[in-house]
């Protein structure tokens, strides 16, 4: 018994020890990159051993500034160790750019270079893992950084023994010293001690059993291509096929294999891809026809779209005394000249991605898939509504009210006549020998993939010693894998029909010695040679020469491979950091406290050989080290994207830079309080540019290329928001570049033309997008744009048919084309009268204008001016027809444009008859007083108004193809109006071409394109969002259709969801609510952001409406509800000249629900939109002040200094923090406000709280820790944003103002 008892006791102790050892076992799989969010966990690991080696350290600065920071977690996901490495030693007296000389002179280390060495700046660990945390951390670090050979720790004098470091490397003393405790020593950690040892050899028959399971398990696609093959069969039967197989052997077992093939179809690849930078994968030959390539006209970026049209959109001057007065239009002498210059988009071609300028699109001829295809870009000066419907407009006129439902599919034979521009690829004729081999197959065991494949890749070039390139082709849907990081992606040609992506690797990328140094005068000839083929070269050579001549303004660096220049960079100090910090979201990436003054650089030029594109991040890292610029910026101006205006080559490392979003700036108003106005840098508005950032830490983050072909049809606000969310979102964990994103739109991306107040007046503003915002963002950098119309969808082959004879391949298709104003329809009676008459295709009348895009508006206004000048009379008629808010904006535009009100006839059609279940008709303004004020303003301008008429037909002048007379009917009479032009705003509908493309493709269309809660159609590869969509009937959610909600929010949420789906190991969190639909969940998402409407109206009126999302209810009906709330009104619509009308609706909870403004003064739209959803208590006790008659003008009230914090772009983050704080549970039982609130609501059966309960909560809050924490958060917010908010008296500011007040004779101690 005693022996048994003793045995049990012993086993229990041993079990405890075994469990502790098991917990302390860590592997490299537990290591990951350390992020700023890990700061508190890492701080807790800093112990005395850390301080002995590194002294007093700032953990936050080290994590933020170090080149590589990794941490290791235990089985409970707790951080138990952290290692931080940088590219220079942590010795303050050694400059980062000079440490290699110090290391060689003192320690005689000859093999140490900046390329293969990193220095330890901090090590922190949990004492329980004293002997187990470092080895897996080092193994992970060496494995993820293939070129890293050495890690060095600088040990200060006096440190004799480090237990946690013993056995991991070698201690090195300075030359001539023997006692380590008296001198500074180095601890050298070598790569080979931590990496797996492989034997690289050619494959033999015996490897068959090891390799075949690897190949089959690696990818089903490989098995589809190769079938059930055997390695042994490839080595014996097909030994003369030109294939070579090499394997990596570990413990006598083949764990990785590469299959190489000497055969490469160069003709096919050169026709499909831009291989000129790689010399066509051939060797040099004396007969090569390789001339300096000129950029084709088809590769212009926004040339005509960005062209200045201000001189054409000046107001009309009615002077007809002398013929030469026509020159005021734009100095045109004939109608032909007017036609040539009439539109900036007349010859506009496709817009291309700046990340990959040659990666245009696969915009191909359907009938030319075999052999060499010609590339035709399509453009048109027609209105977008005409392009989106059929060419025979009479056929469309004789359809019923719903238009597209009566059109037969046979009518597709008549289509819009569009201008096409053929593109013939410029392929140089090369005669040299083949200089490439193919990587056909790469497979490895998952545990050996990272290490073994890189070694095999180096050995592959030994199999073909006389060839310099290795080519790899993968499907666009293939997810990123580690081996791909060595290759450079080759851009496809516009005519390419090749279904896969092509990657190229030069032997010097993996085998040569690469270094970076400061440029010298001797490098100038090499730079001239390197940039010889750049178009345009710009001032690169000039600035480079200035830099090497020690010009203080510029600094230059070169990238060398085997001492040959393969890259160059020119930069200068960024002197306007305050402007960048104020107008861009830089503080999400930079902690200003960690960057010393003068450490910000501006990258002017960076030229890099395409062969060495994969060394771009090393080049940037070394530029940071040698220049001592901890942050580098790069700017893309609008002129950089216009071929006819750009004066410098674009930086070729944009994909390695971080796109920085612009800050939404609120509108500052002048106050009478001295010192309340923000600094001038806040008010400044320089020319817009997109900003990019590089820091040393971000140069080592994982980088993924998503090659999936993403095609977005339409350029609506929904589409722009979707692209913004998908492409420009950021993560501190990795880089992501989307290489194949295309947008299809009749007139390209919107907001590309510089602001013109007359043209912009024609549109009703419902989003924050405008010309400035589009050029402040990096959206244009990543998007290819095709000017065309979707006419079909081939779902089987995943092809989008454009203009009936071109196709665009896609992997994911997003339909966001929305609804547009369509061509007019005739009555059923008129159609029956004409149905037996032969139909003749006709062009749409040139004096009937349908405005859907900026190009439509520009064309219409320029054409209207030419018609008026051609008529040479002051008496004429311009008709504006429709029943949309845009019609009022059009009237205001015509008046501003110089058309007299007496020459304008406004025909207001019947209200749209709603086909849904909602019986109420909501007027445009939903306010009777505003309706009357607007009608009075229209009449006061002399405009003739015909209400409740509908369009019947027009009489056409067959010679000029212009409408001469238009017929309208009401219920009681008919009218005929002669006109020189007509603006038509019919019902917004899905265009005929879009409807036919959708329905013929088999997508469910039930009055709108049917989608599910995740915006997916019945095709899993096709999504849709915006006004074109509706939810499936099984959800009973007609009242929650997208058209009733904020379209920007819908697009943004969808972009987040797709981004999370496409990025491997995505760690980005998306907001709860929209698009978070679990399988089986029948609930559709809800959206919360308000609806904003702003436009200019006749009579110089400005109108703004901000209201809650959802189906709009007539104001009279809403006000009859018991829980409507309260309305605060200042001003009177009948006396609008004296004071602007401002109506503020507070709901039953006291929150702002509706904002309505009508005034002749400018409206701060951005500021007032921020008021929506705010409680009246937050608005400086708005309700109490209004009842006390302290507020006589709400416009002035919301311009007072107290309101500026609410308009700040980061105020919403403060609100979110406070909400989190107030709803958090405290560790002390009974001290949580949220617990008390839940208890009180339960006692009241979830009814409203009583007055006593509210007082109890307020009293408890006043004396609780919540009150103090809330104050601290608000004060921190004001301190951090003092530049924007100097009008608030922060305690620190008050103390500064009162400094020395005790010495004043007026001071009396309390």
Could you explain the architecture of this structure?
This protein has a 7-stranded mixed beta sheet, sandwiched between helices. The longest helix has 22 residues, at 2-23. Helix content is 27%, strand content 21%. With 1310 residues, it is α/β, with parallel strands linked by helices. α36 (1211-1222) runs antiparallel to α39 and α37 packs antiparallel against α38 (1251-1262).
Can you summarize this structure?
Helix content is 27%, strand content 21%.
Helix and strand topology:
Blueprint: H1 2-23, E1 31-33, H2 39-43, H3 48-54, H4 59-65, E2 68-73, E3 79-86, H5 99-107, E4 117-125, H6 134-144, E5 150-155, E6 170-172, E7 185-190, E8 199-202, H7 208-218, H8 220-226, H9 231-236, E9 243-250, E10 253-261, H10 266-272, H11 335-341, E11 364-365, E12 375-379, H12 384-387, H13 393-397, E13 419-423, E14 436-444, H14 449-463, E15 469-475, E16 488-490, E17 500-506, H15 507-511, E18 514-518, H16 524-530, H17 540-548, E19 555-561, E20 564-573, H18 577-583, E21 600-608, H19 616-627, E22 631-636, E23 658-660, H20 680-683, E24 690-695, E25 703-706, E26 710-713, H21 717-728, E27 735-738, E28 741-745, H22 757-760, H23 771-776, H24 779-782, E29 784-787, E30 790-794, E31 799-802, E32 806-809, E33 812-815, E34 820-821, H25 828-834, E35 848-849, H26 854-871, E36 878-882, H27 885-897, E37 904-908, H28 928-940, E38 944-947, E39 950-957, E40 962-969, E41 974-978, E42 981-985, E43 988-989, H29 992-1000, E44 1009-1011, E45 1022-1024, E46 1029-1031, H30 1047-1062, E47 1091-1097, E48 1101-1107, H31 1115-1119, E49 1126-1130, ...
């Amino acid at each position: 018994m005693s022996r048994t008892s003793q045995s049990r006791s012993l086993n229990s102790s041993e079990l405890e020890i075994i469990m502790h050892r098991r917990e302390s076992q860590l592997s490299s799989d537990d290591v990951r990159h350390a992020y700023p969010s890990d700061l508190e966990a890492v701080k807790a690991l800093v112990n005395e051993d850390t301080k002995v080696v590194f002294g007093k350290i700032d953990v936050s600065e080290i994590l933020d500034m170090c080149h590589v920071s990794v941490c290791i977690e235990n089985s409970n996901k707790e951080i138990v160790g952290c290692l931080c490495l940088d590219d220079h030693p942590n010795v303050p007296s050694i400059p980062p750019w000079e440490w290699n000389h110090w290391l060689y002179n003192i320690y005689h280390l000859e093999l140490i270079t900046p390329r293969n060495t990193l220095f330890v700046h901090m090590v922190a660990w949990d004492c329980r893992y004293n002997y187990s945390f470092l080895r897996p951390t080092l193994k992970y670090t060496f494995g993820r950084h293939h070129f890293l050979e050495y890690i060095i720790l600088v040990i200060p004098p006096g440190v004799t023994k480090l237990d946690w470091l013993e056995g991991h490397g070698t201690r090195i003393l300075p030359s001539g010293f023997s006692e380590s405790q008296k001198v500074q020593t180095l601890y050298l950690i070598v790569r080979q001690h931590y990496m797996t040892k492989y034997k690289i050899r050619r494959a033999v028959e015996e490897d068959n059993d090891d390799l075949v399971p690897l190949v089959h398990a690696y990818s089903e696609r490989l098995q589809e291509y190769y079938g059930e093959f055997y390695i042994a069969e490839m080595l014996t039967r097909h030994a003369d096929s030109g294939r070579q197989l090499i394997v990596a052997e570990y413990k006598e077992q083949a764990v990785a294999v590469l299959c190489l093939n000497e055969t490469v179809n160069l003709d096919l690849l050169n026709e499909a891809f831009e291989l000129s930078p790689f010399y066509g994968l051939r060797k040099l030959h004396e007969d090569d026809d390789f001339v300096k390539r000129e950029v084709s006209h088809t590769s212009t970026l926004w040339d005509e779209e960005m062209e200045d049209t201000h001189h054409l959109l000046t107001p009309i001057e009615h002077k007809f005394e002398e013929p030469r007065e026509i020159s005021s239009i734009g100095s045109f002498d004939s109608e032909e000249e007017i036609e040539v210059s009439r539109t900036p988009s007349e010859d506009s071609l496709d817009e291309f991605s700046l990340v990959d300028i040659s990666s245009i699109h696969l915009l191909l001829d359907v009938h030319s898939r075999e052999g060499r295809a010609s590339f035709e870009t399509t453009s048109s000066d027609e209105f977008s509504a005409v392009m989106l419907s059929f060419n025979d407009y009479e056929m469309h006129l004789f359809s019923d009210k719903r238009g597209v439902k009566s059109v037969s599919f046979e009518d597709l034979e008549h289509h819009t006549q569009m201008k096409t521009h053929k593109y013939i690829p410029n392929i140089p004729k090369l005669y040299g020998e083949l200089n490439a081999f193919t990587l056909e197959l790469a497979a490895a065991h998952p545990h050996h993939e990272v290490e073994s494949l890189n070694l095999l890749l180096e050995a592959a070039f030994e199999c073909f010693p006389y060839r310099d390139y290795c080519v790899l082709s993968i499907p666009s849907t293939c997810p990123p894998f580690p081996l791909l990081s060595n290759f450079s992606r080759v851009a496809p040609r516009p005519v390419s029909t090749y279904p896969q992506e092509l990657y190229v690797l030069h032997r010097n990328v993996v085998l040569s010695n690469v270094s970076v140094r400061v440029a010298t005068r001797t490098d100038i000839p090499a730079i001239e040679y390197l940039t010889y083929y750049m178009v345009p070269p710009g001032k690169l050579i000039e600035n480079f020469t200035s830099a090497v001549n020690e010009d203080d303004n510029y600094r230059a660096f070169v990238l060398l491979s085997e001492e040959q220049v393969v890259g160059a960079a020119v930069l200068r100090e960024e002197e306007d950091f305050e402007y960048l910090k104020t107008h861009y979201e830089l503080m999400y990436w930079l902690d200003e406290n960690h960057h010393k003054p003068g450490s910000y650089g501006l990258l002017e030029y960076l030229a890099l050989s395409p062969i060495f594109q994969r060394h771009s991040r090393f080049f940037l890292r070394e530029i940071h080290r040698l220049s001592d610029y901890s942050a580098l910026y790069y700017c893309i101006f609008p002129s950089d994207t216009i071929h006819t205006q750009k004066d410098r080559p674009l930086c070729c490392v944009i994909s390695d830079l971080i796109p920085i979003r612009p800050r939404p700036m609120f509108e500052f108003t002048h106050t009478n309080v001295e010192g309340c106005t923000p600094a001038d840098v806040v008010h400044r508005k320089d020319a817009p540019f997109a900003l990019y950032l590089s820091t040393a830490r971000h140069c080592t983050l994982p980088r993924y290329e998503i090659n999936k072909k993403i095609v977005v049809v339409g350029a609506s606000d929904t589409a722009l928001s979707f692209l913004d969310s998908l492409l420009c979102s950021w993560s501190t964990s990795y880089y992501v570049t989307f290489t194949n994103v295309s947008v299809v739109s009749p007139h390209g991306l919107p907001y590309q033309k510089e602001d013109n107040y007359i043209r912009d007046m024609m549109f009703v503003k419902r989003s924050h997008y405008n010309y400035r915002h589009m050029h402040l963002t990096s959206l244009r950098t990543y998007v290819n744009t095709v000017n065309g119309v979707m006419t079909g969808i081939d779902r089987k082959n995943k092809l989008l048919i454009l203009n009936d004879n071109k196709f665009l391949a896609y992997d994911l298709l997003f339909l966001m084309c929305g609804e547009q104003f369509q061509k007019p329809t005739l009555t059923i009676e008129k159609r029956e009268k004409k149905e037996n008459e032969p139909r003749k295709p006709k062009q749409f009348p040139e004096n009937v204008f349908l405005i859907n895009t900026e190009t439509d508006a520009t064309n219409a206004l320029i054409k209207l001016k030419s018609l008026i000048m051609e008529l040479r009379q002051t008496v004429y008629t311009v008709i504006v027809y429709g029943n949309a808010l845009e019609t009022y904006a059009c009237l205001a535009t015509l008046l501003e444009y110089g058309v007299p009100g007496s020459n304008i006839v406004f025909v207001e059609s019947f209200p749209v008859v709603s086909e849904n279940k909602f019986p109420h008709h909501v007027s445009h303004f939903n306010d009777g007083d505003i309706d009357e004020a607007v009608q009075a303003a229209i009449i006061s301008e002399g405009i003739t108004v015909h209400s409740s008429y509908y369009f019947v037909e027009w009489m056409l002048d067959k010679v000029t193809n212009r409408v001469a007379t238009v017929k309208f009917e009401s219920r009681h009479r008919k009218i005929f109006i002669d006109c020189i032009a007509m603006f038509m705003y019919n019902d917004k509908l899905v265009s005929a071409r879009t409807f036919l493309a959708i329905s013929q493709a088999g997508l469910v269309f039930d009055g709108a394109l049917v989608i599910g809660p995740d915006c997916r159609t019945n095709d899993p590869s096709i999504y849709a969002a915006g006004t074109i969509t509706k939810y499936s009937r099984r959800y009973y959610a007609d009242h929650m259709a997208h058209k009733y909600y904020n379209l920007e929010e819908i697009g943004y949420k969808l972009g987040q969801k797709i981004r999370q789906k496409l990025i491997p190991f995505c760690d980005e969190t998306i907001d709860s609510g929209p698009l978070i639909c679990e399988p089986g969940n029948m609930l559709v998402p809800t959206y919360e952001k308000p609806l904003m409407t702003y436009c200019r109206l006749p009579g110089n009126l400005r109108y703004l409406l901000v209201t809650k999302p959802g189906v709009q209810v007539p104001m009279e009906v809403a006000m009859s509800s018991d829980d409507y709330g309260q309305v605060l009104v200042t001003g009177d619509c009948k006396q609008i000249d004296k004071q602007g009308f401002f109506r503020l609706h507070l709901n039953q909870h006291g929150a702002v629900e509706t904002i309505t403004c009508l005034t002749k003064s400018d409206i701060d739209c951005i500021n007032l939109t921020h008021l929506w959803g705010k409680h009246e208590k937050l608005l400086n006790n708005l309700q109490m002040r209004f009842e006390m008659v302290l507020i006589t003008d709400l416009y002035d009230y919301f311009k007072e200094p107290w309101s500026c914090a609410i308009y700040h772009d980061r105020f919403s983050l403060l609100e979110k923090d406070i909400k989190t704080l107030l709803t958090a549970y405290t560790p002390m039982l009974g001290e949580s406000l949220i617990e008390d609130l839940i208890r009180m609501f339960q006692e009241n059966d979830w009814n409203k709280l009583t007055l006593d309960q509210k007082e109890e909560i307020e009293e408890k809050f006043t004396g609780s820790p919540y009150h103090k924490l809330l104050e601290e958060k608000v004060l921190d917010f004001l301190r951090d944003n003092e530049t924007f908010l100097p009008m608030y008296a922060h305690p620190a500011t008050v103390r500064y103002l009162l400094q020395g007040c005790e010495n004043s004779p007026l001071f009396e101690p309390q």
